[in-house]
Backbone:
C-alpha cells in the first residue's frame, strides 16, 4: 500500500510538472494572448507597406502597449494592406484624428504600430478606420534613394573615374 | 563473386523488409489494444512512473546544461553580429523545435527504452511471458501495452520540461553571466516564438515517444531468450531508436517547417 502511494505521488508530481511546463511554454514564451473575458475594440488601418509586421505585434502609444495586431490582409479595393488592431477596452479615448505608423523596436527588433494622438474631441470606437497612416520604412528603398542621390551629386566626375583603368 | 554479393544484398534487403513488416504488424496489434488498456489505467500509471517520473532527474539536469551551453554558444555567435539581445529567441526556438524533442528522445531511449527492453527480455528469458500465456493471459495486453502507453504519455511531458528548464538555463548564462538585458531577452523571445513553434515541438515529441516506446517493447518482447539475447535487445533498442529519431526528426522538420 505504501509502495503504491509513493508511486502515485511521484507520477502525479511528474504529470503536474509536465503540464505546468507546457502551460509555461505556451503562455510565457509565445506572444499569444489568452484573453479571459477578452474585451477591447477593433480598429482598422490601411498601410501602403507593412514591412515585417506580424499578427500579435504590439500596438503602442508613447511606448505603452495598448493592444495587439489581430490580422493583416490585402485589400483589393484600395490596393493596400489592411491591418486589424485590437485595442484594450481601458484605452477607449483615442482621438479619431490620431495617426498610426509602423516602427521598428531597436535595430533588429520586431515591428510594432505606434499611435500618435490627434486633437479631436471625438474618440475612435469599434470598427473605425484610422485616417492617417504612415508605412513601414523599407531599408532597401532608403538605401537605393540614398545611392541615387549620391550618384546624382557626383554626376560629373564619377564616369570619368570609372573609365580610367 | 558478383553473384554471391548480389544474393547477399538481396538477403539483407529481405531481412530489412521483414523487420519493417513485423514492426508494422506489432504496432497495429498494439493500436487495437489501446481502448482495453485504457480501462485498466492503474497499470499505465505505474509505467508512467517508471519511464516518466524516474527519468525526470536526468532530463532536468541535461536540459539545464544544454540550455546553458546554448546560452554560451549563442551569446558568442550573436555577439559577433552585435545582436546579443536575440539570444532569448534563438535559445527558445532552438530548444522548442529541435533540441528539446530530440535530446529528450535520445535520453529517453537510453534511460527508459533500455529498461523496458531488458525487463521484457528477461520476462521472455525466464518464461514469465510463456507462463502468462498458459494462464490464458495475453502478455501483450497485460505487460506490453501498459509499458508502451506509459512511454507514449511520458515523452511529450518530458520534452516540455526539458525545454522549459533549458530556457531557464540559457537565461541563467545569458542574463546573469554574460549580461544580456533581461527585459530584452524575454521580450524578443516572446515576439519571435509563436504558438505553432511550441506545437511543432509537441508533435515531434509525441511522434518520438511512439517510436521509442514501440522499438523498446518490440525488441524486448521479441528478444532471444538467453542472457546474450537480452543484452543484444537492449543494445538494438538504443541504436535503432537513436537512428530512427534522427531520421524522423529530419522528415518532420521538412514537413512542418
Residues:
Amino acid at each position: 500500500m505504501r509502495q503504491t502511494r509513493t508511486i502515485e505521488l511521484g507520477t502525479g508530481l511528474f504529470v503536474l510538472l509536465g503540464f505546468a511546463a507546457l502551460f509555461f511554454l505556451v503562455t510565457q514564451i509565445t506572444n499569444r494572448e489568452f484573453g479571459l473575458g477578452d474585451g477591447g475594440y477593433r480598429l482598422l488601418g490601411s498601410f501602403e507597406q507593412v514591412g515585417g509586421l506580424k499578427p500579435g505585434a504590439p500596438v503602442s502609444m508613447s511606448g505603452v502597449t495598448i493592444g495587439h495586431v489581430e490580422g493583416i490582409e490585402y485589400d483589393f479595393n484600395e490596393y493596400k494592406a489592411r491591418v486589424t488592431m485590437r485595442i484594450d477596452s481601458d484605452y477607449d479615448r483615442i482621438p479619431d484624428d490620431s495617426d498610426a505608423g509602423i516602427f521598428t523596436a531597436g535595430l533588429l527588433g520586431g515591428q510594432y504600430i505606434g499611435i500618435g494622438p490627434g486633437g479631436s474631441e471625438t474618440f475612435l470606437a469599434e470598427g473605425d478606420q484610422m485616417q492617417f497612416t504612415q508605412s513601414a520604412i523599407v531599408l532597401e528603398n532608403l538605401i537605393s534613394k540614398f545611392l541615387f542621390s549620391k550618384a546624382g551629386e557626383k554626376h560629373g566626375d564619377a564616369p570619368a573615374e570609372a573609365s580610367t583603368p | 563473386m558478383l553473384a554471391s554479393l548480389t544474393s547477399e544484398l538481396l538477403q539483407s534487403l529481405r531481412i530489412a523488409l521483414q523487420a519493417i513488416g513485423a514492426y508494422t504488424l506489432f504496432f497495429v496489434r498494439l493500436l487495437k489494444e489501446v481502448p482495453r488498456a485504457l480501462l485498466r489505467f492503474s497499470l499505465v500509471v505505474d509505467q508512467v512512473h517508471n519511464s516518466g517520473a524516474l527519468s525526470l532527474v536526468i532530463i532536468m539536469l541535461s536540459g539545464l546544461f544544454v540550455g546553458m551551453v546554448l546560452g554560451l554558444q549563442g551569446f558568442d555567435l550573436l555577439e559577433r553580429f552585435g545582436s546579443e539581445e536575440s539570444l532569448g529567441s534563438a535559445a527558445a526556438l532552438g530548444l522548442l523545435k529541435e533540441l528539446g524533442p530530440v535530446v529528450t528522445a535520445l535520453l529517453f531511449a537510453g534511460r527508459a527504452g533500455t529498461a523496458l527492453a531488458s525487463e521484457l527480455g528477461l520476462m521472455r528469458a525466464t518464461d514469465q511471458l510463456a507462463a502468462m500465456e498458459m494462464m490464458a493471459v495475453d502478455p501483450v495486453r497485460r505487460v506490453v501495452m501498459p509499458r508502451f502507453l506509459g512511454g507514449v504519455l511520458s515523452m511529450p511531458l518530458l520534452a516540455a520540461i526539458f525545454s522549459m528548464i533549458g530556457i531557464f538555463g540559457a537565461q541563467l548564462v545569458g542574463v546573469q553571466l554574460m549580461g544580456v538585458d533581461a527585459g530584452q531577452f524575454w521580450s524578443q523571445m516572446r515576439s519571435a516564438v509563436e504558438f505553432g513553434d511550441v506545437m511543432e515541438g509537441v508533435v515531434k515529441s509525441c511522434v518520438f515517444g511512439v517510436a521509442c516506446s514501440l522499438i523498446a517493447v518490440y525488441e524486448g518482447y521479441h528478444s532471444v531468450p538467453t542472457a546474450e539475447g537480452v543484452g543484444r535487445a537492449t543494445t538494438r533498442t538504443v541504436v535503432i531508436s537513436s537512428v530512427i529519431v534522427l531520421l524522423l526528426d529530419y522528415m518532420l522538420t521538412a514537413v512542418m517547417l
About this structure: Confidence is low (pLDDT under 50) at residues 158-165 of chain A.
